[in-house]
Batch of 4 targets.
Target 1
Amino acid sequence: MRVQPRAWHIDMILIHCPYCGPREETEFLYGGESIVRPLEPSAETDDNWARYLHTRANNADTVSEQWWHSQGCQMWLWVKRNRTTHVIDSVRPFGETQ
Amino acid sequence: MRFSALSLFRQSLNSHNGWPRHWRAAEPKKRYDVVIVGGGGHGLALAYYLASRHHITNVAVVEKGWIGGGNTGRNTAVIRSNYFYSPSAAFYARALKLYRNLGNELNYNVMFSPRGLVQLAHSRHELEKMRRWVNAMLLNGIKAEWLDMSDIARLIPALDLSQNVRFPVIGGFLHPEGGVARHDAVVWAYARAASNLGVDIIENCAVTAIDNSSGRVAAVETDKGRIDCGHVSLAVAGRSSELARMAGIDLPIESYALQAYVSEPIKPVLDVVAVSGTVHAYVSQSDKGEIVVGSGMDAYPSYAQRGSPSTIEHSVAALISLFPDFARLRMLRQWAGIIDVTSDRSPIMDRTELDGLSISTGWGSGGFKAIPAGGEAMADLIASGRPNSLIAPFGLRRFSEGALIDESAAASVAH
């Protein structure tokens, strides 16, 4: 049998869920950058509230993100991911130190 | 040199060896009135309109790579004005109007082909939403024609209209003014016209810093040295957050990969642009015969100019559900561009809090169709110092004022 040449190859992101082990990105949903919600929204100025809602660091290097293992254990995770190389530095359950 | 039947004839006598360069390759001067960062469609259009409409010609366009090598060269070339809200309708209608005469104005064949765009509905709920959408378009003065199943069968014979499938096509509308243009030609046309008016186009020249030490923009630092300037305008899809950060400004932007695919060329089979928001596919056939397919954006932010394989699977499934015959096509190319996405999926065209810095960003997946109007409006903003009424709703302040233009919810496709 003739072996098909591999013209190009791209990998899925593999996220090491602390509960389930290594799983492909399609099991997860991206849930935004790890940002802190102001504790008293009504005490914030409109500008600060808009900053919380809309403004993002959006770095091209490593960013702390929130991911939901929706097709697995359904736990929320903090994921430190490089947005140019997709290399993941760490995955921790919510509640632990980022 | 003007392009004409006569010049074509003359060049043909010389085996087409005498065509001159279309634009000058410039090296940076010490100082410009305006430095435009980003040599894509928006940046070059801005340069052209600054020079042609406002006679501001001491202008440089600095581009990290080659002009048109970013998202202007990575889109699916679709041009449309089928938006829901009136600010969007007015703005994109202006873009469409400028596109219609662009070939004449710039003396360059941009291959604008208003072949019509068919938007498909797959459920009763979508159909009801679509009626509201069509009514909004008509109220905004945009042409739209409601299509029944026989119209759709006539317009797109290759489309699968069987009803026993997961997402049966049950209706749709035609946006007759929509279509495609040749994306590279749009870039080259603006570059040539701007260059002829005295604009310097500087390629392979990345901006590494923006000097704002005096409280206003004074210069940009680049690979080719420092360039003093009175005004800097950012038009850098996929790098807006990183560039603005050099000036100490955070933006309401996230950057995602957006993928597209091109098949092997086949005989003419599809002479409109077919769009489905439900299965999420943009499909058209290029002049060369290739089937051009656009995806929805990837599921997570990325600065890597390659996409996630799961998105490819979704797009191909969408394509085949609409056009089962295309299952036997081989895809020739796949690529991704990095798009800057705002939370309301509408663009940002505005001055910034830093004096002398303006920005055009947040174009999401739809920047190409807006190029002429975006460039024209930003030129107006730089010349007059404030946004005109066409782009005033698309300012940075709308996020804290809550005056969002939420086209993502309204038009049911990612922009």
Target 2
Amino acid sequence: MEDKELLQLFNEEGNERYAFNLIVDKYSERLYWHIRKIVPSHDDSNDVLQNTLIKAWRGLPSFREEAKLYTWLYRIATNESLTFLKRAKRNSFFSLTDYDQMVENMLEADPYFDGDKAQKLLQKAIFQLPPRQRTVFTMRYYEELTYNEISEILETSVGALKASYHHAYQKVKSFLESSV
Amino acid sequence: MKEKIDIDKIEKKNPFSLPENYFEQFKLNLNEAITREEERAAIKSRGFWNVVKPQLALVSSFALLIVTFYFIFNLTGGAGESEFRSETIASSDTIELITPLLDEDEVVDLEEKSLLEITPDQLIDYLKYNVDLVSLSYLDF
């Protein structure tokens, strides 16, 4: 079903929950993988995805279709992911644990990691990037979104995104080269 | 010598997997969370009204009382004030009060007419026609 039809259905009284579940069916997987590339563990990604969709449920009655539905959902998911990382980093500062080391340990012990050695190293390199740069990198590298799409979601200029991706790519490349 | 890892040669695939039936379970959990949140919101909004309602009634009652007293005071206030002033004048030592405004003959005349029998209203009328406003303003009540 098209987004427009889903939104129409959502706006019909009594059909809100049914339409929302159709939206969840359509987008939850894409949103999960988007979040999973930014947030270092499955459990945290699960929490962020739930918060994202609860916010979407609250916000849908006032959604005015100025943006596409998926752009709007991606924006919520990205903001939720970045807020989560900020909070996690702050908490680790107060508990005197090294957040980057903690993330590396999480990757090593992740039961849901299926990649080979090179892919594990790539993940470690990606998680060394600052969160916003990491977001841009994964959206372009893994999700293969166009700069225009990323620009709409992150509300950043295409030029700034290209520069951000270029810097991220160079950092990842030199991390991989120096890791062997 | 170990080979360097080149980012361009790494297979670009998603290296993560998911627990079995993850999205089905996620949808159930999400719906439960939304239901819980809606119930909480409903209780919160009902609770808020329950707290506010009696306080609002109390404030309204006070406001009504204040408005009522204000109107009663304003409607009866003028008359009350004039009575109070007349009585004050009548109960004070009248001769002593108005003596500085009169000449000797007028004082004698006043004493002869037995001032004590004069009512406050008569006294006011007398002052109104025989004493100018500037002199009245010097009276020490």
Target 3
Amino acid sequence: MKRTEILASLAFLLFVQGYLLQNVFSALLASAIVIYTLFLRVEFSPSVRVKWNSEKNAVEGRAVKTEVVLRNLSGIPLEVSILSDFLPVNFEAKDTGVLLDSDEEKSVVFEIKPPRGEYRIRGPKIRISDLRGIYSTEFLADTSIELVVRPSIDRIKEELEAERNIRLAAMYKKAMVGLHSMDVESLKKFQPGDDTKHIDWKATARLGEIIVREFLREVEGDVYIILDAGRQMRKGVKRSKIDYASSLTMYLSRFLLRRYSVGLIMYDDFGVIRFVEASPAPEQLNRISSSLTVSPLSTEILRTRIPDFGFRMSERSQQFLKKVLPAIKRKKSLSSGILEAVGRIPSASFLILISDITSNTSELVKVLLRLRGRHRMLVLTPNPILFLDPEKIDRNQVVQLYRRYVEREEIIRKMNRIVPTLDLGPSDFIEVVRGGLS
Amino acid sequence: MIGFVSVIAGGLIAGLLTPLFSPVLYLISRYSRTAFLIGFAVYCISLGYEFSVQNIYTQDLTFLLTIIIPSILMLDSGLKRTSSTRIDYGLAAAMIAGLAIGEIFMISVVFALINQFSDYWPRKRSVIVALSGISVLFGSLMLARGSLDVLGGASTQAAFISAVTVLWAVALLIWLGIAPGKE
């Protein structure tokens, strides 16, 4: 309801009150209100001159300070507001107001946060009202500015990160399918990574925001975390993959223990080294924690740095050594080690394998194929490229790293056909995994 | 602020209770103009219940203005968000002094009214409109005194005032070429 309408209604009510209650005072008061309203209306013919200036170049995500010069050409003081709703979509700005006396000129800073692109914006949109705020008018000023908004490198990184996180969250949710029943447990707001098939359209229409159904989770057996503590996982200059994998194991155990019995299987290049039987008890976290005592391989012995000779074997030599070395070292094959450990699990369980899939890939695939029929599985694999120290990478290594990266992508693609596989970095994605489980 | 002081002082002079609630309206006006207008509407209607005039021709006009002018002053003060000046403080003091001497109160209220609308005085059209409205209303009341000044004629007088006001407002809007809905 407009303010003039409130005053008009009041005057009408007072006239009626005066007539019905035989009270002349009410009618006189109503007349005074009508005279007051028209007194203000007669002089309300606002005229404001607007100039809008802005620098042409801007960076995405950063506020651009534009200058709006306003001059009151009418004879009465005016309240002038610059409205933000005329700006193109995805622009951010706040309404700004200023009080202008008769014939006064003021310069107002109107901050806008533009998305990337090239724009020619006509405006700004101005609302003028009298000093009492009873009468007002809005118009789009006949000026324009040109903006060229360059993309922000930080923003691109953030977007890539967000997109990757969403993709991972979606994959993770997909991996958990089958762990929940068809019984709806609750409704919640849609989060990135939620399955669009679970949107409750009725609740969405009712509440005006996207709502998804959460199902009661059912697990047929226990959850086992299978952690690779082999040489590849223990390598690393600043922080090895095993450090990260241990933290991830603790996170997962902590959150899974709320609902499930959790166990741990740890293996290295020679076979299974730790087996913690699944249990729902709170002490289980301590048991798992005390089992995670694998130290990373250090390149420094007695504080003496081992010089880097830059010696690298050819791919063929590496393949040959991979086949020969287990025989020389008399180590058990990886597949038999894991199969032996998993064989101790009494019933069908959910297995979360944390491993570097690029080492012993063929054996790992064999194990997964064998276990797939009996257990549900998820593979979390730390990406070794993300664990390298960028300062120590030379020109030749970049080419090699790129080849490894392409090879790795191909492996992940193949692995995903067998079991859901998530590629993880040293610091990110823990929140995603945790979010999916909480 | 001056409008709220004048309402309280006028209420005390007239012996009315409703004006004592004006500080609540003052607080509301700091928060929202629309909320203040709704509060003001409630105030006016309750004032209409508390204070009654049966015959305008026998009523002391000065006494009537001690309630109507402060009410309009309060309406304007609540909507106009400007800080008080030294003149306002001086007028407020005079109004408080007017509790003892009625004439001082009336003079200070008239001065407050002139001061409150000082931003409109250079624009003669508004002043002419306001004066024409008051003149038409009281002039027509004078002209129709013969038929309105009768015992139990309060409803007729109220209806007459309403009719004259509405006619004057419509005529003014047509004359000035202002459509009622246009803002």
Target 4
Amino acid sequence: MKNGLIIVTGAFLTLLFSWAVLILLNADHPSYGRLNPFEDEMTGQLNPMPTTGLAERGLQVYVEMGCVACHTQQVRRPGFGADSERGWGHRQTVARDYVGMEKVQLGNLRVGPDLRNIGDRAIPEAWSSLEWEQYRHLHLYAPRSVVEGSIMPSFSFLYKKQEVKSQPSSNALPLNGVEEGYEIVPTPRAEALVSYLRSLRLEYDLPEAEHLTVEAREKLIEAKEEQNEQE
Amino acid sequence: MTTVHSNVSTRRSSPYSTGGLSEADIDQSTRGPVVFFVGTAIFWLIISTLLGLLASVKLFWPDFLGQTAFLTYGRVQAAFTTTFLYGWASSAAFAVGLWLMARLAQNRLVYGTFLKVAGAFWNLGVAISFLGILAGKSTGYTALELPGFGAPVLFISYALIGSWAVVTFHGRRSRTVYASQWFLLGAFFWFPWIFSVAQGMLIWAPVRGTVQSIVAAWYGSNFFVLWLAPIALAAIYYFLPKVFGRPIRYYYLTSIAFWCYALLAPWIGVSHLTSGPVPAWVSTAGIVALAMLLIPVAIISINIHGTSSARGENQGTTTLAFIRVASIVFTVLFVVASMLSFRNFQEVIQFTYVNSALWMLGVYAFFSMTVFGAAYFFLPRVLNREWRYPSRIGIHFWCSLVGILAIVIALGIAGWTQGVKINNPEISFVEITRATFPWLAMVSLGWVLLLIGHLAFAWNVATLALSRSVSPESERILLSNPPEMKVGAQTT
């Protein structure tokens, strides 16, 4: 090859090919890049609900703290890994589950559990006296006080220590060992983060994900077993 | 064939092709910008090594330096990636790329001051991105964490640096265009392409939903396969014939390899989106492309291993030691990556440290090792001085080699353990974490070795740049041209 122009043109075309097919085509596809939330005809409810308000600000906190370095937000299909057995979601996540998010934080490393459905997950029984939000705050403030041996960093800098006024604040963390007359309360950023985590829920069903649920897989396995027995 | 090889090393003996310019003249013309880029690259290498070490320690000691927001794990990790990819790797790619471009075009690198100004802006862009990430301005996309305000600075300075490379190529005095030049042209052209696409479609006018994830995967992988890897391949295709004094073996296959690589490599990034919330054909296309990529990888491997299997006079040189490691890693990396992209493996390793191991293998054991080897070759020639402490080069080589092996092996084992245990719902996350601790500690030890190696590298370059005189004997040994190629003797 002697001609620089051929090399540059060729390099342009090869990259253009992958960009056009993988990205442009997908970004403009009516049933993928241009998807909208699904409207439940019975209730008029939009699924998924767009992330708005406090939760949207929480997403910003999630991004700036780099939570994505250790947490994924994608549930794999039942039977591929143990995502549903771990209680991370009853079905695989599909493209529509993410259309309301300004930034999609799928992630690619699970140092900690998947978070796509954390808002719908119950807190451990030992802490059932706490509200869901209270438990999450406690977990963010001092991870090892609720999960012994956890590797999650403490986000104590999202909380502030303040003097107790006439009576303890309603959002004060249920902590032992705080200095007498003081309490630990979440900053607005911590409130936003927990509100965002609460918004990560997969409790609704989507028509295109019906065959990707735990129930669908169980039915499939049953059908196969029956077939085997008949043979 | 003969003409193709002649521009690699015989031009000095052929006054018609050099237009009267000697390699020494060309090297001198690259001095300012090349030394500048190497210097700043080493600065960022040390910073990113410290960040990488810190991040690795935090994985088993979460409270270590953890009481402030700006040193929380997520930010340190993002700052590490950014300083490594944009501060170290890209600056090093500029140094190697510009020097190679000038040598292969047999053309002086003109107006070096402009390049240094552009380089200063590049470093400014990296610096504000680095501080921005620590202050919480990360974009949250892997390999593109640099904040929106850092990117334009990088882009503008790149436009100048990249066009310099193209102008140097355009003014070439050689009639043929050698394989290294294809890869260089490709890299200098592909980088602004992928960078502007990623910026445009993720930051300025974000696409919706998980299309973002496709763009991010496409960019993150292309940053390596279309920007760093071609620069390293260009260097390998240049140095092997030089060091061994023989042409690339089966060179006539290289153009096929180049075009197959250019066609398939941009597709492989999406292969790890298996079972993700994207259309199923996307990850399938990625897996198929990665498997097919083994064709150009095989040709390139035959080229480089076939050439370096011979016994040459310069077997013991530092450059060769680094490049031998990088060549082996190149082959291993793509073979392993394509094997692991199959669904049975993905079920286990998809979200584990195994991916981190592959990443380190690519950007460090392949790309960075090549750059180290190249730097040990061109710096004495560009500066017209000699390495003063050869033993320190040994420290650098062995620390880098043992360090990266420790990191890759430990991350691989930690990742596999992690993946198997995550797929067993009976095992709690705390148990999984505990099982990976010993391996993660080994990763940190690896980082300590890399740090020692990089400090030795920095010290070597600093003493070289600051030393004044060249001893006549050393000049004879180190600055003399490598043996001429036996043109035409080894083309089959």
